[in-house]
Specification:
This protein is α+β, with helices and mostly antiparallel strands. It is built from 4 helices and 13 strands. It has helices at 16-39, 46-59, 129-148, 156-169, and strands at 63-64, 76-80, 83-85, 99-108, 111-120, 173-174, 180-182, 189-193, 210-218, 224-226, 233-235, 241-249, 256-257. Strand 7 and strand 8 form a beta hairpin.
Amino acid sequence: MVGEKSNLSKMKSRNHYELELMKKSGKIASFALKKALEKIKVGVSEFEVDKTAQEEIYKLGGDLSYKSVPGYKYATCVTVNEQVVHGIPTERKFMPGDLVSVDLAVSYKGWHTDCAWSVIVEGQKIEDKKQKEKFLKTGEQALWDGISQAIAGNRIGDISAAIQTRIESEGYNVVRSLVGHGIGRQLHEEPEIPGVGKAGVGVILKKGMTLAIEVIYTQGSYEVILEQDGWTYSTADKTWAGLFEMTVIVGKDKAEVLTEM
C-alpha cells in the first residue's frame, strides 16, 4: 500500500541485526510476489492471486503487513487497467490484455518490506499489446532509475527526479498524490518519496536507511479518484495505470534491493 501515514518513525539507519531481519522479510515478499504474478492468467480471479500470495507468505514464516491497516484483511492489493492502487481482491477474473498490478508487504519478526509489479495478462489478439509493453517497460525502467539514486549523500529529490524524468520522457505522468516511503518497524515511515521532484533537494540519504521506492504512473492525466469501495484509486480519465515498487537499503556506492524477484 502507498501514500499512507501511520505512527511515523524517526528517520535512521538500521544496524546489522535489523538489516538481516529485513533481508529475510524481503526474500519472503519477493518470492510471494513472484508466485502471485505467475498465478495471473486468463480466467483466474483476483482473489485466487491473493490466496496464493498469502499461502506463500505464511509457508515461509512471514506475516501479512496489511493486517496493520484497519479494516483490511488481505495479503495484497490487486489493481487492473485504470485502477492505480489499493484495489481490494475480488472474484473478478482476468481477461487477455488486462494490465494487472499486485502490491504486497510482508512482516518478519516485526520488520516490514513492501513490493509491487505490473504485468500484462497473456492471450490471443491483445489490443494495443506493443503500447502496453512500452508502458510497463517505462515504469520498470523508472523504478531502477530511482533505485540507482538511493546512495549515501544523495537526497530524496534525486530519486524523485530520476523517476519523473523517465516517465515523462515517454509522455506518461507520475501520480502526484501517492508516494513511496521509508519502511522498517512500521510499514509506512518517514521520509516520503514522491515520484516527482527536483534533484539535489530533500532529505539527505544515509547508508543503512531502508526505503520503499515506488513508481505510480498513468498513461494520461495524473489525477486520480477514489472509487465507491472506499479503497481503490483509479485514473480520473480511465487511462491505464502502472505500479512498480521495491524495498531497498541505501548503500555507500549502490542500493541493495531486498525484494528483487
